[in-house]
Amino acid sequence: MDLHLAALEQQALTVSRYVGITDEVLKKLGTAVVKGEISELKRQNHLYFKLKDEEASVDCLMWGSQVRQLPFEPQVGMQVIVVGSSSLYQKRGIFRLMAQQMYQAGRGLIMQRLEELKRRLYAEGVFTQEKRPIPHFIDRVGIITSGEGRVLHDIKTTLLRRNPLIEVVLYPALVQGNDAPASLCQALARAYAEKSCDVLIIGRGGGSFEDLLPFSDEEVVRLTAKSPLPIISAVGHEPDYALTDFAADMRAPTPTAAAEMVSAFTREELARACEYFPQALEHFMGVVLDDKVNEYARLKQRLQAAGPAHQLELKAGALSNLQGRLNAALERRLTQSNERLWHLQQRLGAFDPAAACLRADNLLKTLTLRADNAIKARLSKAQQEFLQRTGKLSALNPLAILSRGYSVTYAADGSVASPENIKPGDQLTSRLEQAEVVSTVQSIRPLKQD
Questions:
Q1: SS3 content of the chain, % helix, strand, coil (to 5)
Q2: pLDDT tens track for 61-98
Q3: Where's the OB-fold nucleic acid binding domain (predicted)?
Q4: How far apart are the first and last CA of the chain?
């Protein structure tokens, strides 16, 4: 027993390993398509819901980025088809269906696909092309519908009552069932090829949602939009609609309403037209005649404008204009040449040798005169300075004192005699203004102070 437990323990997986292996196995199952009813719904950033049938339920999760792409709002109790993969939430061991796509089941799925087709055709411009008006006067109407239903009878009855002159051409086609789209396309192609009608009506009477689906078939809708003739879509009754309503030039709520649209010119209007036909014809002829007169005048004017005389006049005017422009251009060029010649003469005159010599001679005279004036000014200034300095020197000359009766006595060594450098017996020389006197020192006595 102990050995058996030991072997089991050795083979045992951890919980995380077991859940991980199970999750890998589930993912290898690939994509699953599951149909059921939404029983619980919780929307946060992502969509958490349960999908159930009579016997089982499964938890589902759809990421927020995928939820935002849904063309409808999921609701509790709604039958849906979920496309996703199986997964095991390892942290809590919860099995989930990871939803990647979701469609409404049954009629809801068909409505969803119709909405997707409608958006795509709008984006391609199939429904937004320019709509053509229905002609007011119609001789022949083409009907694309079943030859056995009441639609054709109702249309003929309405046209007979309102305008019996309108001819009806039937292009029979199946209007319900799997073969209806191909049959409708064949009838449309035949009507387009013949082009014998003024307007086309494609439609059928009322019926179930599924009965009207052939008129929302993509090929039928695209072919309706390519109609070379104005076309009216009249499918079902007032609440009903088909995608051909958006592709056609006009939508009628019923086939009878379509018949009334194409018979806008009624029997009563036809009778009134016949009553007033002579006056209308006279008025019409007058309008036509006026148009022809105006056209004749326009043609005559165009003929005159294209005639040789007018063309010659135009050419003469153009030639005169060109000649005037040529003369103006020549005058401008001549003026510019004269101005340029004058400037060149001025520049050449600046380089003339005689003029250059004259300018140099004038400059030399000017500089000589300026130099003479400068020399005279400097000489005069020097003479004045010499006289000033001579006067100062004369004033400071010791010999000038002799002229006022003074004398200067020199010792034997030639220095000015003073009590300090002479003694009795020394020979002195006294210089007067105009003579020198030689004497001998007898004695030296100081002077009395006052």
A1: 50, 20, 30
A2: 999 888 888 888 888 878 888 998 888 777 777 788 88
A3: 14-102
A4: 167
Predicted confidence (pLDDT) at residue 268 exceeds the cutoff of 90: no
Band of residue 243 on the pLDDT scale cut at 50, 70, 90 = very high
Crossing angle of helices 218-225 and 180-194, rounded to 10°: 10
Q: Does residue 294 carry a pLDDT above 60?
A: yes
Please list, in sequence order, all residues whose beta carbon lies within 8 angstroms of the beta carbon of residue 328, skipping any fewer than 6 positions away. Answer: none
CA angle 305, 306, 311 (to 5 degrees): 85
pLDDT band at 13 (very low <50, low <70, confident <90, very high): low
Nearest to 262 by CA among 274, 250, 271: 250
Helix (H, G, I), strand (E, B) or coil at 211: coil
Dist CA 85 CA 100 (whole Å): 8
Amino acid, single-letter form, for residue 42: K
User: Mapped to the 3 state alphabet, what secondary structure does 263-287 carry?
Assistant: CCCCHHHHHHHHHCHHHHHHHHHHH
CA distances from 78 to 40, 48, 51, 53, 68 (A): 10, 15, 10, 12, 18
Q: Which stretch of 116-125, 189-198, 233-242, 380-389 has the lowest confidence by average pLDDT?
A: 233-242
Q: What's this model's pTM, rounded to 2 decimal places?
A: 0.45
> What is the helix (H) or strand (E) element at residue 89, kind and residue range?
strand 79-89
pLDDT in tens, 88-134: 777 777 788 889 888 877 666 677 788 889 999 999 999 988 999 98
Half-sphere exposure of 377 (CA within 13 A, CB side): 6
Hey, what amino acid is at 423?
Answer: K
- The predicted pLDDT at position 230 comes to 95
Contact 102, 49 (CB under 8 A): no
| Spatial separation of the C-alpha atoms in residues 410 and 431, rounded to whole Å | 8
CA distance 259 to 266: 11
Q: Does the structure show a pLDDT above 80 at 350?
A: no
176, 218 Cβ separation under 8 angstroms: no
8 A C-beta contact, residue 422 and residue 416: no
Residue-level pLDDT at 241: 79
Tell which residue, 56, 26, 60, 54, has the closest CA to residue 41. 60
E-state strands within 132-267: 140-145, 167-172, 199-204, 231-235, 250-251
- 79 near 52, Cβ under 8 Å? no
